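Sanity check record (used in CI):
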Amino acid sequence: MGQALQRAAQWTSAKDGSGGKLEFTKINEELLNTIIKFLEGFSSKYPEEAKLVFKSPLTWPSSLTPQTMSGPGLSEKGDDLVSDATERDIPLFALKKESVAYECSAMTLDYCEQVLRAASDKKMHEVRACLEANRDPVVNMLGERFATVEGDDNSIFRFMEEITKEIEQLAKQSAENEGNTEKQQELDEKKLVLKLRLSLLRLDQQLLNQSIAHITKEARLTPVIVDGEFNILRDLSGADERKYVLESIEYWGDGYVFKNGCRAHPQRQLHGDIAYIEARPFDGNPLYITANTSGYYMNKGPDNRGDLDYEKEGDSYRDLVTLLKDKSPHFAEAIDKQEFSLKVQERDDHRVPDSKVHDVGDEDDQEYSYRQEQRRQKQIIEEPEKDQKSKKPQRKKKLEPSLKWKTLGMEEYKEPEKRSERAFKIKKKTSSSRLKSKTPLDAEDTFSESSTESEEEEEAVERRSETNADLPSEYWQIQKLVKYLKGGNQTATIIALCSMRDFNLAQETCQLAIRDVGGLEVLINLLDTEEVKCKIGSLKILKEISRNTQIRRAIADLGGLQTMVKILRDADKELKCLAAETIANVAKFRRARRTVRQHGGIKKLVGLLDCSLTSPVQHSQQMKNETDDVEVARCGALALWSCSKSRKNKEAMQKAGAIPLLAKLLKSPHENMLIPVVGTLQECASEHSYRLAIRTEGMVEDLVKNLNSQTDELQMHCASAIFKCAEEKETRDLVRQYGGLDPLVSLLQKTENKELLAAATGAIWKCAISPENVQRFQELKAIEMLVGLLNDQPEEVLVNVVGAIGELAKATPNRLQIRKSGGIPPLVNLLTGTNQALLVNVTKAVGQCAEEPDNMTIIDKLDGVRLLWSLLKNQNPEVQASAAWAICPCIENAKDAGEMVRSFVGGLELIVSLLKSENKEVLASVCAAIANIAKDEENLAVITDHGVVPMLARLTNTTDDRLRRHLAEAIARCCNWGNNRTSFGREGAVAPLVKYLKSGDDMVHRSTARALYQLSKNPDNCITMHESGVVQPLLKMVGSHDEELQEASAGCIGNIRRLALANEKARYS
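Expected output for Armadillo repeat-containing protein 4:
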């Protein structure tokens, strides 16, 4: 059910911190009805599963009341209705009154079914409310292990394996007469869970199929589809009634095509119109047709002035042919006699655009495909004129696939050819062929790169020698060898390949020599031969020279990747290794990675990872086989590492089953295997689904173990993987449990290796988010080492170092240690930088340090507060927010805070102006800063003059609790000057504040009560509060354990009461 809710159901966007709601659409209504049918009668079909108690209750706001729900097994307790049956002292069903409405809580499907029976005609309302409150209900029912995940979900298979193992253990125990009743009961319960999970999976599948069917019916037209249908019908139009289906068909209008492909005017495009068509059938009047996104329909045609009347006439049709069939009997008869295949095929032979090879799902390719479609249409328009000039007697043409599709490698295709005496053949090409790209050059994939990739490589400019004077002798020798490759027999080819390998192929001159004389085409063509030695020789050379940026681009342009992907399924292990390594070198840029995925390379590369690491070795042959398998897996992991920089490739890897294979290889004792495996994992760890898999598949322990490796590169990748995975608390706890914090701190000593240092400090930063880890870092004296890294380090290291110090500084002893280690001056110096990520972390770290008064003294002396204030001018909202948060403790702990703030020229005006920001984090932080500034009376007077009151009042309608808390505090402080209380009332700030008392956050209650107390000193505000119903919630808060909340609530009620008494007295006096 989770997949259907996630993928098929239509949700509104989440707003103001609350989850989205199910939209009131037809597809959602059908899904809800299916779920209702599933629940109705469930207990009679599956009585045992219906009684299965959930892991946690499904809770939702209900329209039911105890009177409508009462029945056997249920008893009333005050206003609530609860079941007699309980689990862990929790009732299996409860209907509790929450303020105005009731909240329903059910822990079995049996009670869910009872709710539906009681709801009667409000069944859909109850199911909708339940699903909106429980976005993944399977988690509540069966536990976290069955949570909905992206990609393949193997949880049920692991659960079945677990049950199978327990059955085997019980069978063993019963054979040994050691019966275990408790285990048998647990096993029976697990079987019930499995049965229920399978039932829910069937429901999930039914819902998904239902949504697919619905979406298929509602397919919408696009400009490309309209143009395609129009062009086909125009090709079938002409003056001869016996030969053609229409007399003519043309677009109506001035012929202008907008950038989005539409021909309709922009004001009509708002109504979904794409184009207007005038079709002239042989048997009737002209037909004027509107092509709309919803389908084709007839319009009223041109009026007396020649302007088109857009009003719809009749029904809509899904395609143009169906509409014309309905309107013209001649068209219906003639269209069925047409033979499209021959006509289309004749044109495909000389016009098949390479651009057709692209992922259907690539969003960035849609505009590109549209441009190609426009070029194709232009050719269609021009070609009939050429055909008229060179018209010859028609002869039957053999239908066969275009050769361009063959070169693209889109399908297995073999030309009929005469076999020579030997199987070895080299297909010769002209040198001009190397200018033709075999993969689309313009189309770009949708990428989210997980590692920083040099744009220099993306925009590499091809360099060619302008003169032959300075070329070394190797350049000419390689050119001679390439000639032997082109014209020699099998033996000569192998000798030439061996001779070529004797050169230093790592030298750029040798690499470009092979390319300039056309050697790349020959080497790639050799991969299509049947001689294994030639393939191996060619791949060894390609592997070496593909380290060059220009060479790897040329290989991709010549279709080398497609051939190498095919080789991955070859039986020869050496061939597979070389192909995978070459792919790893070539797939360093976007287009190459996309080509590998499009031609099925990801699945084949994942297949290479499947090797045995634990088989017992008894003979040398077995040892060799295992070594070869390990090498194949290593090369496969190397290629996947390069490909994993693309988000879509990560998804393809997951679907192909890469995660369990990578987890298995992570336990390998071979370090050369571990480096690409961990490298791949740390690239993929930018995706949540991979982080979840790394945690649940037990890979964290192996990553921690490999932190103790002697290889810096392996340590770096392990630390980087932990850095990305430690976003989740569970992973941080696992790193600590497996002893990973100690080796991370020890890696800080390797200051020469900046990449390793950046990874280690990043991992420490994320691990320090958990207080339990902070304690261990204190014991390891990590702060002193981190402070030592604040100078003379690159920015990527500094960002992580400062981030780690900021997290560690949340503990009071660590703030003292940072000062003793001399960490405050370098932190303040970093406030003058320009790196946005670094500024965010530095401001947070300085803010945490300023919580200590002694630290604040040093920050003030170093002019740190002025630097923080200047960062409020930064254009980045994150920097603005973190700077404002840092200013708060600075004002609180400065000795003469009021004078310090006033000394900043234009500082108060600047911070008040930030209340115009649209970023809620900025607003919350600025309100907190204003609350501290307003403690000083002179500063409060200045910000009042700058218009702080109306700006704060405009923000009061927010529903964000964090902003509410600091906004209410700021209003409470600002009430202490002049007529500000009256101004707040006049600006309409009082009534919205009363709503804050309904929040679930106690801190919001406290600050709101303070604000209301201050505002209640004005009689008009008291009247507004009373009318808004403030008394009842304040009376409850008077009984709170929070003394400040008690006092403020009581004071506000007292002011309201005193005003009421004064009115009474005035009335009767």
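Confidence is low (pLDDT under 50) at residues 340-373, 380-469. If this sentence no longer matches the regenerated tokens, the check is flagged for review.
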